[in-house]
Amino acid sequence: MGKEIKALRIFFTGVGGQGTLLATRLVGEAAMEEGLPVLMSEIHGMAQRGGVVESSVVLGAAASPIIADGEADVVVAFEPLEAARALSKCNAKTVVITSTTRVMPFTVAIGQSVYPESDALYQMVEPRVAGLIRVDAEGLASSAGAERSSNVVMIGVLAGTGIAPISKKSFEQALRQVLPERLIESNLRALEAGYGFGSKAGGSWASPPSDRQTHTTR
């Protein structure tokens, strides 16, 4: 029988090629390893076309994996613009974890639109949520010798904050179950790098959503 916990709703968003759905699966597998009830859903995906990819994991007592507007306890964004676009999922107690690496949309690349300044995007998000954790995921992945594993770094950050009641050991086991053997060691290093960052950004994030205090990590 799984552990009984209050529902924790985690919304993931990124663009095709960033490994958003793999990261979602890792969290789901880690939750099952921990013995937690878990529901997973791919809400929208255009990975092969480089479009927006959204998915969700709901832990604990919940009837559906779908996260309605205003319901997310955590948003994990693999790109700053997508973090801003996910504001509809947020409420005043949501924690947003975002990569600082920008991925230019096709319309920007061909000169039909302009990508907003990152600081402007963060300023949109910060006043409307409990906290914003900005992560140089590519830099942390590179320093760990796992250049293509910034998505796993982001999951490590989530793990390190303590928001989700999932042990580091369960995340490590999930990596071993999901990834081919040749990729395990480098991704374990990426997870560790993110975990260390998340641990420093943690503290109030480990408390239940109703008890969180507003905080920003830059």
Task: Explain what the structure shows.
This protein has 218 residues and is of the alpha/beta class. It has one domain (8-102, 115-207): 3-Layer(aba) Sandwich (Pyruvate-ferredoxin Oxidoreductase, domain 3), CATH 3.40.920. 38% of the residues lie in helices and 19% in strands. It contains eight helices and seven strands, in the order E-H-E-E-E-H-E-H-H-E-H-H-H-H-E. It has helices at 20-33, 80-85, 106-109, 118-125, 137-143, 150-161, 168-178, 181-200, and strands at residues 8-15, 38-45, 52-59, 74-77, 95-99, 131-135, 215-217. A seven-stranded mixed β-sheet has the order 2-3-1-4-5-6-7. A hairpin with a 6-residue loop joins strand 2 and strand 3 (52-59). Helix 5 (137-143) crosses helix 8 (181-200). The longest helix has 20 residues, at 181-200. Residues 208-216 have low confidence and may be disordered.
Which properties best describe this structure?
218 residues, alpha/beta, Pyruvate-ferredoxin Oxidoreductase, domain 3, 7-stranded mixed beta sheet, 8 helices
